[in-house]
Records
---
Amino acid sequence: MDLLEHQGKQLFARHGLATSDGKAVTSVEDAVAAANEIGYPVVVKAQVLIGGRGKAGGVKLAADEAEAREHATNILGLDIKGHIVRTLWIEHASDIATEYYASVLLDRSEKKPLVMFSVEGGVDIEQVAEETPEKLIKQTVDPLEGLTREQALEIAKAGGADEDVVEGVADALVKLYEVWIEEDASLTEINPLIVTPDRQVKALDAKVTLDGNALFRHEENQGLGDTANMDPIELKAKEEGVTYVALDGDIGILGNGAGLVMSTLDVVAQHGGSPANFLDAGGGSDAEKVKQAVALILSNPNVKAVLFNIFGGITRCDEVAKGLVAAFGDLKPEVPFVVRLDGTNDVEGRRILEEAALPNVHAAKTMDGAAEQVVALAKEQS
């Protein structure tokens, strides 16, 4: 789960990393009030999960109330590469002497945390890595020992940090690593990590990605993320604990297991169809879970037909059939369904569907046959 800048800074502040005072707001009036409270000059920053905000006009310096109002008015609602700005971060402007770069991520080849540091901060770090790789220091960390202060000092010195701020940079690296470990993050990044004229080191930006599979351990983080820009069906699915991704097509897809669902998307595409969603009902889904999933699929008005592709293992086909019967009783679908049940209790599942005689539900024996049939039915509905 990617966090907005101000949310990342909340985590940084929780672990003692220095950031500037600021407020997140969603209206022009609140932006002006926040700027007046914080004190000028302030920076008005768009909160979107995409880079290049500054070049797109999403970051502006305001010297007084009139400028704060003008910038907030212009930035709210701005479309930055498909991301609509709905939240602003109003922050006291910092004096900057030097800009560095720091990050912690997972080195998958070494299976260890990787700390990166560069004195070339404030620019595209991929460009630095490509054109001047000697200016990007990379060091893996023993996950059992963690990032020690001694190792952080070595990284800061090797990266070329100014001598009088090496201690401050090392402190920032240790705290950035602490955020990565204790918040179950897959990425913590500061670009730029600034040095002020009075030689203080602090985070001017924050980029944090949390491991969604570990959120159950962090109740305080579960409300984070850019929910304002999420697809409403994806948001509802998230609230219900269902894995759903919206796509551009018109065929609703439900399967159990991410691999099976991805395969189903491929087979539907091979037959000339276009999936409307990825929905993994997961292992062991009961009738109620299936009913919830059907409701999510049908809430997309673009759906012309639905394909159920279930390979029962932990999931029982009779439970899937009961869920489908319950869904038809409550939701009264107007689009055709193609259902393929195979595996655990498949005979019982097919018997339940046959006896229910649900309108416009077609049974299929194979995944390929089911995909071919649902594509044809979707085209008939168009």
---
Amino acid sequence: MSTPLNEEKLRYLIEKSSKARQLIIQTVHHAGAGHIGGPMSASDVLVNLYFNEMNVNPDNPTDEQRDRFVLSKGHSAIGLYTVLALRGYFPTEELQTFDSLNSRLQAHPDMNTLPGLDMSTGSLGQGISAAVGMALGAKLQNKEFRTYCMIGDGESQEGQVWEAADIASKYKLDNLVVILDFNKLQQFGWQGDGESRETPINEPKKRWEAFGWHVIEIDGHNHQEISEAFRLAREVTGQPVMIIANTVKGKGVSFMEGDYLWHSRIPTDEELSSASKELEMGVQK
């Protein structure tokens, strides 16, 4: 077992996660567009990656030795933008330009406009393929950097995800870590699901293990477990690593949690105020 995060570091990460969620809601409210549920379920993992795990430097975003990150579920871009802004890649005030004409912060990530983005994503299933390519390239060039990628559970219905999974294990890419944001809710549901909209993915651990991956399953909102999972991933040899992060869609705001309608709903002024208060109170506990 590794040394757990001390109280100061744990508090620091929790505060960053709360701030990221506040910025997500404020930005979507201001823009009148964007997604909330998925970005908020992913916030703790993204904060842990950028403030605790990855070797990155906002002052030198193209450093060849930096770790790479690919947000394969590109529609959750606002979640990544808020973390990049808090990490210092660009001013948080720029979030107010989200989804507007000529903004660097489009609804899906564009690596050609914004420093800190390693891949343009949006078409589901394609981001993980790019991450596999980055990890394979590092192996072929004897580079030490690691590649991280986040996929969604809904995205996992794309056949390309499993083609990438097969190739990653074939080439024993132990420098690749993929995180499944397993919030278990779809945007529109599936035929025959009625009103549940629950993901049809059952037992993802068995599926990824069947493709030759080393699988770690965690609470995706517990920074201690997230940190330990990343540490364990660094010790795995000869296999790519899948971290199944069990998360809650809309995490942090009671009236958004577990409600598929908040996949991409825009909050009213009253809902924005109520959500912000809840998130602030959550940190003060």
